[in-house]
Specification:
The complex is a heterodimer of chains A (230) and B (332). Chain A is built from eleven helices and no strands. Chain A has 230 residues and is an all-alpha fold. Chain B folds into two domains: 213 residues, P-loop containing nucleotide triphosphate hydrolases (Rossmann fold), CATH 3.40.50.300; 112 residues, RNA polymerase II/Efflux pump adaptor protein, barrel-sandwich hybrid domain (OB fold (Dihydrolipoamide Acetyltransferase, E2P)). Chain B has eight helices and 20 strands.
């Protein structure tokens, strides 16, 4: 018991003393996940709006696939992308393995289905008169999408935040593709795994506390957006 | 004759059930047309077709003399303006709502500003310009939706049940506005309503719909005159008619033909409007008996065959014409 509380006290000491190693890891995590969530939103939101507002062959299959992909295991994404980006893989020539960029690609693949699916929900939850209003005002398909983005903006921001929560907390992609290189690809989750296996429990715990803090802030922002939406 | 719309063999079906079937129908340019019918009669479906929101399942449409093709719909939507029964305003300011359609048409900012300012002034919305649209009352929202539509300078303005959620004051304002836009802007205006009297009062042309088909219009009574607010009366050239307490202005009075009761003797009832007169004509139309009684004004009543048999009257006989003040409507 003493061991745990001692480690917890040391963890807070690391946080309060602004330990540079801890904060570099936090910054790396935030940077990678923020870029991933913006990139995934650029793909997921338009796809979500298109899926919600248009009928096309295979739509029900797409919806079923999206629901399945919402719970895509991170290690599976890591494994497949490792095969793609490793030297012998089809994109091995790009030399992207063990870089922050490839973690971003992996996290994008993880969270695009989430943002896509939640954007469909957001568009469907919009007032049923909105689509006809857009048409009546003479909006083309792109303009209609843009008006929808404006009207369901809070729900879309909530989708982005949920995606961010998934990205910042995942370990499989970051570990398998990033290689846990200090100062470059070491994220909070990979560092926690590494430091704990090395026996530096207090360091892992400090990062765990910061990860929980980020999750808490993210959820607080999410709740705020949801309150605005109501 | 110049037509805004010429519809031929139009059909629109939700799943397999036809919602509207029209053999041929014309709407004149610069006219006011009222689509009249009960809920589910096909008014909204027809409006969606006229506004180019929905495509008919079959049939042809000519719009201002041009045959409509499938790939014309976006450009045609930009020549019409459609206001839904409960218009949806975007979650932003009134000004931005009115400006939106111009932005979608890539109108330059300076021109946008001038056109929006003009319409805001025309409709007296200056005090609402920077209010959030979701804070407006039903009548104010309706006015903003009209501003958002007419700022686009459309050739046709289509309004779905524009009066149904308005109080008396806004209803009169809107009636006046529709007349003004039609005359000044030379706009073709199409609106739907349940109220036949209101349709007759405002429109040049009435399209009565029953179960998705156009049917002949029923006769109604519409008399010009003025309101005597103090005594709650409407004074026509030949009669004085009791009004409901809520009415205090208007220049035309309408009475639904089916609300008029005919009797041989004066009725002892709560009906405050009672006139004695002579039957001028009697004829059968689709199973209903249409009776015209000269009792100061010429009142058109529609009664059943059974009621006529019971009454046992013919042309030239004297009868009492009675109706409640609540059967009366007054229009600007």
């Amino acid at each position: 018991m003493n061991y745990f509380f001692q480690a917890l006290a040391d963890a807070f000491s690391l946080i309060v003393s602004l330990d540079s190693e801890v904060y570099i890891i936090v910054w790396t995590s935030l940077k990678i996940s923020l870029v991933a969530v913006f990139a995934a939103s650029l793909v997921g939101i338009p796809l979500g709006l298109y899926t919600a507002l248009r009928e096309f062959p295979g739509k029900s299959f797409v919806l079923q696939m999206l629901n399945t992909l919402m719970a895509l295991p991170t290690v599976v994404v890591g494994l497949v992308l490792y095969g793609v980006f490793t030297r012998q893989g089809p994109l091995g020539g790009l030399g992207m393995l063990y870089t922050a960029e490839v973690i971003i690609v992996g996290q994008c693949i993880l969270i695009i289905p989430i943002i896509w699916n939640l954007s469909i929900t957001a568009a469907k939850a919009a007032d049923p008169r909105l689509a006809d209003t857009c048409k009546a005002l003479g909006a083309n398909t792109l303009q209609q999408g843009w008006i929808f983005v404006g009207e369901v903006r809070y729900a879309l921001m909530a989708a982005m935040i949920i995606g961010f929560g998934r990205a910042i907390g995942e370990v499989g992609v970051a570990m398998m593709l990033g290689g846990n290189i200090e100062g470059f690809t070491r994220t909070m989750t990979t560092a926690i795994a590494l430091q704990t296996s090395k026996g530096e429990f207090e360091f892992g715990l400090a990062l765990g506390v910061l990860l929980m803090t980020v999750a808490f802030v993210v959820n607080a922002i999410l709740q705020w957006f949801q309150s605005l939406n109501q | 004759m110049n037509y805004a719309y010429h519809l031929r063999e139009i059909e629109f079906a939700y799943d397999a059930t036809p919602a509207i079937t029209l053999d041929e129908y014309y709407i004149q340019q610069q006219s006011i047309t009222a689509l009249v019918g009960a809920n589910g009669s096909g008014k909204s479906t027809l409006m969606n077709i006229l506004a180019f929101i929905n495509r008919p399942s079959r049939g042809n449409i000519s719009f201002f003399g041009e045959q409509v093709r499938d790939d014309d719909y976006l450009s045609l939507r930009r020549r019409t303006a459609y206001i839904q029964q409960k218009p949806y305003l975007l979650n932003t300011t009134v000004y931005r709502n009115i400006e939106l359609g111009l932005k979608l048409r890539a109108v330059k900012k300076v021109q946008r500003h001038a056109r929006v300012a003009k319409v805001i002034e025309q409709l007296g919305l200056q005090h609402l310009s920077y209010r959030r649209a979701h804070e407006l009352s039903g009548g104010e929202a309706q006015k903003v939706a009209i501003a958002r539509a007419i700022v686009l300078d459309p050739q046709v303005l289509i309004l779905d049940e524009p009066f149904s959620h308005l109080d008396e004051r806004f209803r009169h304002e809107l009636e006046e506005l529709i007349g003004r836009l039609n005359k000044a802007g030379k706009l073709t205006i199409i609106f739907s309503t349940h109220d036949k009297l209101q349709a007759q009062s405002l429109a040049d042309q009435i399209c009565s719909l029953v179960d998705g088909h156009v049917v002949p219009n029923s006769i109604i009574n519409l008399f010009p005159g003025s309101v005597d607010v103090e005594n709650g009366l409407f004074v026509t050239e030949n009669s004085v008619i009791h009004l409901p307490a809520s009415i205090n202005s208007g220049t035309r009075l309408g009475i639904d033909s089916t609300e008029i009761v005919l009797s041989r003797d004066e009725l002892k009832s709560s009906m405050r409007n009672r006139f004695y007169g002579k039957i001028k004509s009697l004829h059968d139309e689709a199973g209903d008996i249409h009776v015209i009684v000269n009792a100061g004004e010429k009142f058109h009543a529609i009664i059943s065959k059974a009621a006529l048999d019971e009454l046992a009257v013919s042309v030239g006989d004297d009868v009492w014409v009675s109706f409640k003040s609540s059967a009366v409507n007054v229009y600007l």
